[in-house]
Design a protein that fits this description.
There is one protein chain. By secondary structure, the chain is of the alpha/beta class. It has one domain (3-233): Rossmann fold (3-Layer(aba) Sandwich), CATH 3.40.50.720. Helices cover 37% and strands 15% of the residues. It has six helices and seven strands. It has helices at residues 12-23, 57-67, 93-121, 143-163, 192-198, 208-219, and strands at residues 3-7, 27-32, 48-51, 75-78, 125-130, 168-175, 230-233. Strands 3-2-1-4-5-6-7 form a seven-stranded parallel sheet, sandwiched between helices. Helix 4 links the parallel strand 5 and strand 6 (168-175). Helix 2 (57-67) runs parallel beside helix 3. The radius of gyration is 18 Å and the shape is globular.
């Protein structure tokens, strides 16, 4: 069975990605900074669970070493990350650095460790990084996270070019707002759900499963001629401006 390493596996996106890959017959290694948050992983998944902070070189190395007890995972879903809703003038240095660490450093160090191990096999592999629609459309009060996610896309494209001849594919997904535990605070205000849904041309906000489906497809053999791409999964938010009202 193919083997996938998923970072940020305790988050909604990581968990949905794991569920989809398990259903498709993949072996899973799930990584989180807090092992307890993976305590409810279904036993049927038979997943290897690893506690590691992949935003550090040491943590990423530990995660890959644990995943490679038998052989390196052919696939990587780098779902670790965080969000920051603050304007530029209100973002302190520590919050800015934390945002880049959680989103960019985690992708960089995990991808670096994964690539170094997969190259030695000579069999190639596929990785998917997680960007955001914020890297494609300016949204107020999102400067730090927008910068971090744009950098993730640059990382994906450059790595895809560097390792293409080794049969290693690197892509990214750029989701819009996905409702889950980490974003539920955005929905608490009166009329927030309707307002947020109306911002999207397709008339609804996202669910983690929307992006998870894209990640699973990009890791699959069906996408084996895709590399260096950023797949927008955002209900048309970044690119479309529909006419008002209904047709």
């Amino acid at each position: 069975m193919p083997h996938a390493l998923i970072t940020g596996a305790s988050g909604a996106l990581g968990r949905d990605t794991a569920a989809r890959l398990h259903a498709a017959g993949w072996t899973l290694t799930l990584v989180s900074r807090d092992r307890e948050r993976l305590a409810d992983v279904p036993e049927a998944w038979a997943a290897r669970v690893v506690e590691a902070d992949v935003a550090t070189p040491e943590g990423a190395a530990h995660a890959l070493a644990a995943a490679c007890e038998s052989a390196p995972p052919e696939a990587l879903a780098a779902c670790a990350g965080s969000r920051l809703v603050k304007p530029l003038h209100g973002t302190g240095a520590e919050a800015y650095r934390d945002c880049l660490t959680a989103n960019l450093d985690s992708a960089f160090f995990t991808l670096k460790e994964w690539v170094s191990r997969v190259r030695k096999t000579g069999h190639g592999g596929a990785a998917v990084l997680v960007s955001s629609t914020l890297a494609h459309r300016g949204v107020a009060n999102r400067e730090a996270i927008s910068a971090a996610k744009a950098a993730v896309e640059g990382l994906a494209r450059s790595a895809a070019a560097t390792y293409a001849r080794a049969g290693i594919r690197v892509n990214a997904v750029a989701p819009g707002l996905m409702r889950g535990p980490g974003t539920e605070d955005l929905f608490r205000a009166s009329q927030a759900e309707a307002r947020i849904a109306a911002e999207y041309p397709l008339g609804r906000y996202g669910q983690p499963g929307d992006a998870a489906a894209a990640i699973a497809w990009l890791l699959s053999a069906e996408a084996d001629w895709m590399s260096g791409q950023v797949l927008k999964v955002d209900g048309g938010f970044a690119d479309l401006q529909p006419a008002p009202g209904r047709l």
